[in-house]
Design goal:
This protein is mainly beta. 2% of the residues lie in helices and 40% in strands. The radius of gyration is 17 Å and the shape is globular.
Length: 182
Amino acid sequence: MGNTEILKRGDLQLTSAGTGISHSEKAHGSEQVHFLQIWSVPTTPRLQPKYFTRHFSDAEKTDKWVRVVAPIGAEGIVAAREGEGPTPVQSPLTMYATLLSPGKALSQSLNGNKGYIHVVQTSGYKEGKAEGASITIKSTVGETLTLREGDGAYIFVGGSGNTLEVNNDGDRIAEVLVFDLN
């Protein structure tokens, strides 16, 4: 497809391999690369390859949920390569991101019956017990769990309309992703 791009903090790149592409990635310069690579299975097979980029600033995500990925056809989705709003995906997946300040709490409704939450590891790789940011999550079905940087948890809520509460109970900003899955 001829795409070459240097990604920086807040950038989101979505590549849909579709009927086939050649893909590689590498560090730019001598610094180590730290990013998340997330895969989802498309609902429609044999699509043409596509490539999308979006940028979501720290200011946009501070102490609020920002929808950064959503299914094609969902409200507010622009299927242009460098369009505005959430990145379009060919899966029943909506992803939200936040930078949650210490002592702050946010709620997020889940429309699917399952989800996943991940606390991004921003303090660098360390062996041993997780350190850094810490959050507590609570669902409307009454489960409570504490997660630290690098931790993630599957969420089973049993139907749409349930709410997930996320509280930063640590001493630093927590970068958190929530995946709403059908």
